[in-house]
Write a structure and sequence with these properties.
6 helices; outer membrane lipoprotein receptor (LolB), chain A; globular; 13 strands; alpha+beta; single chain
């Protein structure tokens, strides 16, 4: 009986200690920023460019890939295959694209829904740091199993109404999954993005393996980056709608 009582007491003390040290949402955000290299290292990154390949349709197509981001919120993605190059870009104000795979070889502006969806990917610091800086609502929802990992789950409600769930590795506090709920052309859908293969470049850890797709809609696209460069030289008009196309 005494052994049972001691075991019960020990369990009670363990649970009390766990509750006393339960992480808050802001503590997890701070740990995430620190895990990436720290706030100073992140802020020193004015731009980042990753190159590799994009694998789609379950491996049927493999394309060359280059993604470039620049503060405060510009992003451009170039995808090439068999002499054709698709471009998607957002300069902080408007989005545009060139899509020869869809039969459109001239630059055209993106629809508003597509711009909003694409612009979310422009952040350099990541969803949590970006949301915290913008004053968005961040709530800790406990842990949830992600492919066998009891990941920390945070709910982010952005000021524009966007809803995201961010899952952090319990040991390293880096993102392993982000689920983004969006309404695109009147249809609600959830984009699921998994992150892995983090490598440190320029004092910051970047995911070089990313899988992204729409929940319940086939195989996700796989982004496999072979290299990352911090603060590369970028032309002033690199993200802007082409001047020739404006005339």
């Amino acid at each position: 009986m005494q052994m049972i009582q001691r075991a019960a007491l020990g369990l009670a003390l363990l649970l009390a200690a766990t509750a006393a040290h339960a992480l808050t949402a802001m503590e997890l955000v701070a740990k995430n920023i620190e895990a990436k290299g720290g706030a100073a290292a992140l802020q020193a990154v004015k731009s980042v460019q990753r190159e590799g390949r994009l694998i789609v349709n379950g491996g049927q197509f493999v394309l060359e890939l280059r993604e470039t981001k620049q503060r405060p919120d510009s992003i451009r993605t170039d995808i090439s295959m068999q002499g054709l190059s698709q471009v998607q870009a957002y300069d902080g104000k408007e989005g545009w694209r060139i899509d020869p795979f869809g039969g459109r070889k001239d630059p055209e502006r993106m629809p508003a829904d597509d711009v909003k969806e694409y612009a979310e990917d422009a952040t350099i610091d990541g969803v949590l740091a970006d949301a915290a800086a913008a004053g968005s609502s961040i709530e800790y929802l406990g842990t949830e199993d992600i492919d066998g990992t009891p990941a920390h789950k945070l709910k982010v409600v952005r000021k524009d109404g966007g809803l995201q769930y961010v899952y952090l590795d319990p040991d390293y506090f880096l993102e392993i999954r982000v689920e983004s709920q969006r309404v695109v052309r009147g249809v609600k859908r959830t984009a699921v993005t998994d992150y892995g293969n983090y490598e440190k470049v320029g004092g910051v850890f970047w995911p070089l393996s990313i899988e992204s797709g729409i929940k319940g809609q086939g195989d996700p696209a796989k982004f496999e980056y072979q290299s990352a460069v911090v603060n590369p030289e970028i032309a002033a008009d690199y993200f802007s709608f082409p001047v020739a196309a404006k005339q």
